[in-house]
Write a structure and sequence with these properties.
Order of helices and strands: EEEEHHEEEEHEEEHHH
Largest sheet: 4 strands, mixed
Strand content: 25-35%
Helix content: 25-40%
Amino acid sequence: METLTVGDLAFEVRRSARRRAMQITVDRGGELLFTAPTVCPEDVMAAFVREKRMWILTKLAEKEALRTEVPPKQFVSGEGFPYLGRSHRLLVVDAQDVALKLEHGRFKLRRDAVRDGRAELLRWYTAHAEAWLTARVEQWQHRVGVEPAGVHVRELGFRWGSCGRGAKLYFHWRTILLPPRIAEYVVVHELVHLAEAHHTPAFWTRVERALPDYAVKKQWLAERGIEVAGV
């Protein structure tokens, strides 16, 4: 993996024959990505970093603030919880057949389950993420030209997805909180990894072949994906 260090800023460098201009992305966990044309001298990239230094530091500070200042959910009626890009208000109810469900656009949580509200919510998210992501994997795998062995939903830290041994796909449960078009980009990204292990130009070419507007979705995820971190 190519890297670039300028002062106290360290970047992963990705080069592409299709790219004509340099671009800096501050990823979800604060990781720095420098995308550049195939032929781009290191001193030119370093000068670009110095020019954008204040913007980079501002973005890093914003992401750190989002990560540390999001208040914990109290699981009281009226709180909003995301699902597939939309916020749904919570209603605490005295009785219902299950601890938690989404009904008529509202999450309904049984009062005796409030103490375990986050655990109930994570179980709900995980179950619905597995069903939704499995359907999208089946939809996209033929376009990408790969055959995954299965779909699993896990807590993956700052990763949205990963590939395991035996062509298994793993996705963060928070993927189900993203807008569908962004979650589908995560699906395609991981499917392509079954054919291309690293973020080489060939990898991004295959992603673009499946999703011509992938760069817009990738940028959205890098800039706004952390917004779902407070759940």
